[in-house]
Design brief:
The complex is a heterodimer of chains A (about 375) and B (about 90). With about 375 residues, chain A is α+β, with helices and mostly antiparallel strands. Chain A has 8 helices and 21 strands. Chain B is mostly beta strands. The chains are: A alpha+beta (about 375), B mainly beta (about 90).
């Protein structure tokens, strides 16, 4: 039994169902999925090709029948006949698509910067119109050649057929003006501040001399050379420049420093809360002139049903204390601290030449300065 | 429609030249019964299907019986088959 066979499900109403079955059987009509609903009702399936014969028998015997459903190809066919509007629309759409697929009558231009897209699109369109819009007749290589011949500024062109479009990708040549503009921004610049100790220029024009002081961003080599007429000819700057630089850090010392210490007197306040709502709070009175507060919070219960929280605030009384520091005792610490600070801020690539420290007095304060002398070699 | 038929092999074993005068049954594990030599169907119900075969009448009893295919001389029954008796 082939399940994809076209079959028709029929309901027969009338007496003598079994007699009818025998009659149909004798006439060579195969019956499938037979269901005798009652003495007067019966449902069965027959093959599509036997339906004409069945109709004839039913007509001759004057039997009432009803088509319940169709399966297999017949179902699709019946659906198409019943919904012929949708079917015809679909058919027209497919035909239209097949026809359109044979023609490329639209042009898409990509990659134009100075050239006009519309102008090239019109040019390609004209060439297509002169020859044919049929995909088979469109020669992409010919279009590429014609575009290269027509426009001098095109460096590279590629044309392909994609659906209803002829897609043209264009790469334009870099003009001298553009090249010069790009090169003029390529000047070699300093990345640190210091004195120029050595300069070697391989290409370009030196903007500084030995002994000049430069800051960050100062131009070192200019991206051009002067020709015999005195006109600028732009080039990529190449050279090696050595800059002497120094880095320092200062730590200040005072003989007397005012600091605050706790007196030992405290005042406490606490808050009991549930779901962020304050349930109970208590605070002790205080009359401290100077104080600092320390807060702590902890959960009273470790469940999510009643998450009570206890918040405590302790207020410590402070007093002013003047402390005396001996510079000689702390001197080495200051030097180490200043040295650490300098080395932390040192940029990469510095070759250290010398390290030294200075100590100077200004009034009651002393300043400890740590200096690192080095050089940076910049290659372009 | 051509079907696989092993009755020709049976003919050799039984040493008869023709099986057509007889009624033939093929039962597959008590859920499907194929009968050849069917003349008429006498009654159809979910528990009993009566058939008139050559020279005899047969009753197929069971549960949820249904006629899957009925052709000129053959019948295919599906369901829980309890027995096939001569009546």
């Amino acid at each position: 039994m082939k399940t994809h066979e076209s079959r028709i499900e029929i309901k027969v109403v009338g007496l003598n169902q079994l007699k009818l079955l025998s009659y149909l059987k004798r006439n060579g009509i195969e019956l499938f999925d037979l269901k005798l609903l009652s003495h007067e009702e019966m449902i069965f399936k027959i093959k599509k090709n036997k339906f004409k014969l069945l109709k004839k028998i039913f007509k001759n015997k004057n039997i009432n029948y009803q088509i319940l459903s169709r399966s297999g190809f017949d179902r699709i066919l019946f659906f198409c006949i019943k919904n012929y509007g949708v079917f015809i629309s679909l058919l027209i759409f497919i035909i239209f698509l097949i026809i359109l697929n044979n023609f490329s009558f639209m042009v898409q231009i990509n990659g134009c910067t100075t050239l006009d897209d519309d102008e090239i699109s019109f040019f390609v369109g004209e060439k297509l119109r002169q020859k044919s819009f049929h995909r088979k007749d469109i020669d992409c290589q010919e279009i590429e050649k014609q575009l290269l011949n027509q426009y001098d500024t095109i460096s590279f062109v590629s044309a392909i057929k994609r659906g209803c479009y002829v897609v043209v990708d264009i790469k334009e040549k870099l003009t001298n003006v553009e090249t010069d503009n790009n090169l003029s921004q390529l000047s070699a610049k300093s990345s640190c501040r210091g004195y120029v100790s050595k300069i070697e220029v391989y290409q370009g024009t030196a903007a500084v001399r030995e002994g000049d002081f430069v800051k960050e961003g100062t131009e070192l080599i200019l991206p051009y050379v002067l020709d015999s007429k005195g006109e600028k000819e732009y080039v990529v700057p190449h050279g090696k420049i050595e800059i002497l630089c120094y880095f320092d850090n200062v730590v200040t010392h005072s003989d007397q420093v005012v600091c605050f210490e706790r007196t030992g007197k405290t005042s406490k306040a606490f808050v009991l809360s549930l779901f962020g709502l304050e349930i109970y709070q208590h605070s002790e009175e205080n009359s401290f002139e100077m104080f600092e507060e320390v807060e702590s919070e902890r959960d009273l219960s470790h469940n999510n049903i009643l998450p009570f929280k206890y918040k405590q605030k302790t207020i410590f009384e402070l007093k002013e204390v003047v402390k005396n520091f001996d510079f000689e005792m702390e001197k080495q610490n200051y030097i180490e601290k200043a040295k650490q600070n300098v080395f932390q801020e040192l940029p990469e690539g510095v070759i250290i030449i010398n390290e030294r420290q200075n100590i100077c007095d200004v009034g009651p304060n002393k300043f400890v300065q740590y200096i690192v002398e080095g050089k940076i070699i910049m290659s372009f | 429609m051509t079907r696989f038929n092993f009755f020709s092999e049976l003919k050799q074993k039984l040493q008869v030249s023709d099986l057509s005068p007889f009624c033939q049954f093929v039962m597959i594990d008590f859920f499907s019964l194929y009968i050849e030599g069917v003349v008429d169907i006498l009654s159809i119900s979910e528990t009993e299907i009566d058939i008139r075969a050559k020279k005899t009448k047969i009753r197929v009893s069971g549960e949820n019986l249904e006629v899957v295919e009925l052709e000129d001389r053959t019948l295919l029954i599906r369901g829980k088959i309890f027995g096939v008796n001569k009546i």
